[in-house]
Write a structure and sequence with these properties.
single chain, about 325 residues, UDP-N-acetylmuramoyl-L-alanine:D-glutamate ligase, 9-stranded mixed beta sheet
Length: about 325
């Protein structure tokens, strides 16, 4: 297997999705486990698009941990950077769903958020050779909520800088992961100074910047190459180098939105590796890059689960040929 070109660092977990729509946590009768965790979703989506990718994170030495490592291996994700923790359990998240299928996080069952293996990611065990060989580091903010995994994030950022990697931050704000959610904005804002591309959901943009205008956020961040602001069925706003625009979402029969944003990001990274920053020199190419990412995201919503539904390049091309924006 070739060295991964993209490293995705953070959490891998099971989303326990409520089988009954429109019910609150206590009224749900049964749950279906779906593998997830934004960085793991991105790694899997990239491999399916033909980009060698590795996952860096920590899971427990338990059955869910075994199942997730096996899944990564089966998909073809490099697992050199996966750590196993002897006592901490692999994270499982309860997710309730509205009648329209939209999801809401509903906690972690019997465990405190800080007890899971992903919070124990050890900075000293990050394999620097992985970073040396890769082009792009993708990370979220959830691991910043815990002292040990936060150290690993900062160390990964240092390694990425040392080896001249591009850094892509997907904010992926989940207050339920933080003991003190009010400290999160300042911690997250510090990270912006170290990254090249920032992806935010519209509500995250408004929370951190009081605006969802990608150009205004790009201007305020100053040091980044680009900002993507996604808004589900309303599409995406972007500012990449000097190219600014909005693209509506593809109209598709949505089955499950889980992981659509992660697939969108994988599609964007695939295009970034194909074109480099040169791709943002002109308006049309930039729009095509976002359109490709949007198609990858849209295709992921057609089936349940974040990873099982991720498309191949030929599926994306066929979709783009038959769907106009």
């Amino acid at each position: 297997m070739s060295n991964p070109r993209v490293l995705c660092l953070g959490e891998i977990l099971f989303d326990l999705l409520a089988d009954q729509l429109g019910r609150q946590l206590s009224d749900v009768e049964s749950w279906t486990p779906y593998p997830g965790g934004a960085p793991a979703n991105v790694a899997c989506a990239l491999v399916k698009l033909g980009v060698p990718a590795g996952f860096v994170g920590c899971v427990g030495e338990d059955e869910p941990g075994d199942a997730l490592v096996k899944l990564l291996r089966d998909v073809g994700v490099d697992i050199t950077g996966v750590q196993r923790h002897q006592t901490a359990p692999t994270r499982q998240v309860y997710v309730v769903r509205s009648l329209s299928g939209d999801r809401t996080f509903a906690g972690f069952g019997e465990y405190d958020t800080g007890e899971f293996a992903d919070t124990k990611l050890n900075a000293k065990e990050l394999p620097s050779s992985l970073f040396e060989a890769a082009d792009i580091l993708v990370l979220g903010t959830l691991e910043l909520a815990y002292p040990e995994s936060a150290k690993a994030i900062y160390h990964a950022l240092d390694l990425a800088e040392k080896y001249d990697m591009k850094i892509v931050l997907d904010v992926n704000w989940r207050p339920v992961f933080w003991h003190n959610p009010e400290v999160a904005p300042d911690i997250i804002r510090q990270i912006f100074k170290k990254v090249d591309f920032v992806k935010l959901a519209k509500e995250e943009a408004e929370w951190l910047f009081d605006t969802s205008d990608a150009g205004a956020i790009n201007y305020r961040l100053d040091s980044v190459d680009g900002v993507l602001v996604t808004d589900g069925e309303n599409g995406c706003a972007y500012c990449l180098n000097e190219q600014e625009g909005k693209l509506p979402a593809f109209s598709v029969p949505v089955v499950d939105t889980t992981g659509a944003g992660d697939s969108f990001l994988a599609g964007f990274i695939y295009q970034l590796l194909t074109h480099g920053n040169q791709g943002f020199k002109d308006k049309e190419t930039t729009r095509d890059i976002i359109k490709y990412a949007s198609a990858v995201g849209a295709l992921t919503t057609l089936k349940p689960g974040a990873i099982a539904s991720q498309p191949t390049p030929s599926e994306v091309e066929a979709f783009l040929a038959s769907h106009q924006l």
